């Protein structure tokens, strides 16, 4: 089919059917899905019965009778039996290569309390020879029931035969064997690259810094590229099992893109990938040198693997006490994050002038920019810098910069984001797991804005809800959960894991929640003409699910199971 005809096809179901009917023998379709409830997510929010696929693309959507006319001798007809079909999920923020590597290096477990942590340590202690280090997998204290670091004594209660390390809020706690291994044996012991925090009796409680000393004692296991590739292939299958058909790899390099291309050559690539390249350069020359070194043109690649955006990091995170806020942290936050200065507002790793230089350079070289920025103070600094560049070069507003995370929108921030042509990539699962801690530590007005999906949607900002998946292969219990069903439920219900709704106005409708994991995510990489909805001319990425997305009770949304996932018209997962 010629591209010109595809445009015509967009006009409506009936025209599509007629066009194809006239040439139904030579244009026989590969696959037809019939008898379903197909949520097309087109502009009219139409729900269709049937859909036809040819050469990896959708060629018709309509009634069973219309679409069945397009069947040829070799057409596979899939009977949906009334099941619901959704566009394939676009997961716009993962670190799949890192997660693959981490799966080879060690085990991951989601832990919700100090007691669970102790059980996990006891289990590991049984498996490992005495004296070998045990590192507790990353579980931030915002997500522990106690909302604090364990004490050394609590870690000792799990094992004294192995040195144990637990890290959160960028502070390390060790058991007695751990402190001994680090050479911290009495009140006079010092750490060359860190500070020892002690209790009133002078006993060590935790350490700030000390990363190098720790790494010397517990070197990272070596993981080969081949091992990483094997694990990555498996992880992409896990993504398919929950309906993910496209991922954005949010911090990669030329070799990362190479891995995905190799998987494709080996026939093992089952999700599309959009690459984000992270740099730390702060000058125009540094940024230009980095971009030239990457060797890709903006948007280079194809529908499977494509280079889409650059990335820089402005502030830290809510789990570490480094998010850049518009107000001083104050006593409660200072105590929680074990900081010292109540006037502290969080980190900014670039000056406003550097931000402006970076943005102007990246824009001049034709690239969109994605900015890691979690706090509202940081977000305002980013928007100021984009606006400053736009004053002399308005093309930046068409470049579709992405704010990554930006957890505390206000109506004014959302309005400016829209005006500057910027999109948002944020994490629903953080609301679910961290809202109770935010309510306690940040207070009511902050938690009501936290992951404020409604704020973005009301301003017309394309907002992608995604995972920031980093470690673990279990879709529901990874760090962070990458199950889109859970994200849809969180976006619609806005319930925390403590059972509270903070900021009911931030709930999304079911249609908008679906857009946040499909169409709006596609917009971030200029893919909205190809991905994100089920319309003729688009790539045939879709999922068949086990219940009625539009009619099931809200609490069942999280239970949605994917029965079949198709990418480019091919089934990559079937339950
Ligand atoms: Zn990330």
Structure overview:
The chain is an alpha/beta fold. The chain has 3 domains: 3-82, Roll (Urease, subunit C, domain 1); 109-217, Roll (Diaminopimelate Epimerase, Chain A, domain 1); 225-570, Metal-dependent hydrolases (TIM Barrel), CATH 3.20.20.140. The strands form 4 sheets. The chain has an 8-stranded parallel beta sheet. Strands 3-2-7-21-22-23 form a 6-stranded mixed beta sheet, with helices on one face. The longest helix is centred in the middle third of the chain and has 17 residues, at 225-241. Bound molecules: zinc ion. The site of zinc ion (ZN) has 4 residues, from loops. Zinc ion (ZN) binds next to loops.
What characteristics describe this protein?
Urease, subunit C, domain 1, 34% helix, six-stranded mixed sheet, 575 residues, TIM Barrel, disordered N terminus, Diaminopimelate Epimerase, Chain A, domain 1, alpha/beta, binds zinc ion
CATH architecture of the largest domain: Alpha-Beta Barrel
Cα Rg: 25 Å
Secondary-structure class:
alpha/beta
* CATH class descriptor name of the largest domain: Alpha Beta
CATH superfamily name of the largest domain?
A: Metal-dependent hydrolases
List all distinct small molecules, including ions and cofactors, that are bound in this structure: zinc ion
Please tell me the total number of domains.
3
- Proportion of helical residues: 25-40%
The spatial strand order of the largest sheet comes to 8-14-15-16-17-18-19-20
Give the helix tally.
Answer: 21
């Amino acid at each position: 089919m010629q591209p010109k005809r595809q445009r015509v096809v967009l006009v409506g179901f009936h025209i599509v059917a007629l066009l194809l009917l006239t040439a139904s023998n030579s244009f026989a379709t590969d696959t037809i899905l019939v008898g379903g409830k197909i949520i097309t997510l087109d502009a009219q929010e139409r729900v269709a019965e049937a859909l036809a696929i040819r050469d990896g693309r959708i060629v018709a959507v309509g009634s069973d009778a219309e679409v069945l006319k397009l069947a040829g001798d070799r057409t596979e007809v899939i009977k949906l039996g009334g099941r619901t079909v959704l566009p394939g999920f676009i997961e716009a923020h993962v670190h799949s290569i890192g997660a693959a590597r981490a799966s080879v290096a060690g085990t991951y477990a989601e832990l919700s309390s100090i007691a669970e942590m102790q059980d996990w340590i006891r289990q590991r202690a049984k498996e490992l020879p005495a004296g070998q280090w045990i590192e507790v997998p990353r579980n931030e204290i915002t997500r522990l029931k106690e909302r604090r670091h364990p004490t050394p004594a609590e870690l000792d209660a799990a094992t004294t035969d192995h040195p144990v390390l637990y890290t959160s809020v960028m502070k390390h706690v060790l058991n007695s064997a751990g402190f001994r291994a680090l050479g911290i044996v009495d009140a006079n012991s010092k750490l060359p690259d860190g500070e020892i925090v002690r209790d009133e009796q002078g006993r060590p409680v935790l350490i700030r810094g000390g990363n190098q000393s720790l790494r010397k004692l517990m070197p990272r296991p070596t993981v080969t590229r081949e091992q990483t590739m094997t694990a990555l292939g498996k992880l992409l299958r896990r993504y398919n099992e929950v309906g993910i058909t496209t991922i954005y790899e949010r911090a990669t390099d030329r070799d990362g893109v190479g891995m995905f291309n190799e998987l494709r050559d080996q026939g093992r690539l089952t999700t599309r990938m959009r690459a984000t390249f992270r740099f730390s350069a702060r000058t125009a020359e540094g940024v230009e040198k980095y971009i030239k070194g990457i060797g890709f043109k903006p948007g280079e690649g194809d529908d499977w693997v494509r280079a889409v955006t650059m990335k820089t990091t402005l502030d830290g995170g809510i789990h570490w006490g480094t998010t850049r806020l518009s107000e001083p942290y104050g006593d409660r936050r200072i105590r929680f994050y074990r900081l010292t200065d109540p006037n502290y507002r969080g980190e900014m790793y670039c000056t406003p002038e550097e931000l402006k230089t970076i943005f102007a350079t990246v824009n001049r070289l034709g690239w969109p920019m994605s900015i890691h920025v979690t706090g509202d103070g940081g977000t305002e600094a980013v928007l100021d810098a984009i606006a400053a560049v736009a004053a002399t070069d308005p093309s930046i507003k068409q470049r579709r910069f992405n704010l990554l995370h930006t957890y505390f929108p206000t109506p004014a921030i959302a309005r400016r984001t829209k005006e500057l042509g910027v999109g948002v990539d944020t994490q629903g699962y953080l609301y679910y797991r961290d809202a109770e801690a935010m309510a306690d530590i940040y207070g009511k007005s902050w938690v009501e804005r936290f992951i404020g999906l409604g704020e973005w949607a009301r301003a017309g900002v394309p907002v992608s809800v995604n995972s920031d998946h980093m470690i673990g292969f279990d879709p529901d219990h990874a760090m962070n959960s990458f199950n889109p069903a859970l994200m849809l439920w969180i976006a619609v219900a806005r319930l925390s894991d403590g059972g509270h709704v903070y900021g009911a106005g931030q709930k999304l409708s079911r249609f908008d929640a679906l857009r946040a994991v499909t169409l709006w995510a596609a917009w971030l990489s200029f893919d909205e003409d190809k991905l994100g909805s089920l319309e003729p001319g688009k790539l045939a990425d879709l999922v068949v699910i086990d219940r009625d997305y539009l009619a099931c009770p809200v609490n069942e949304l999280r239970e949605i199971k994917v029965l079949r996932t198709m990418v480019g018209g091919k089934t990559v997962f079937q339950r």
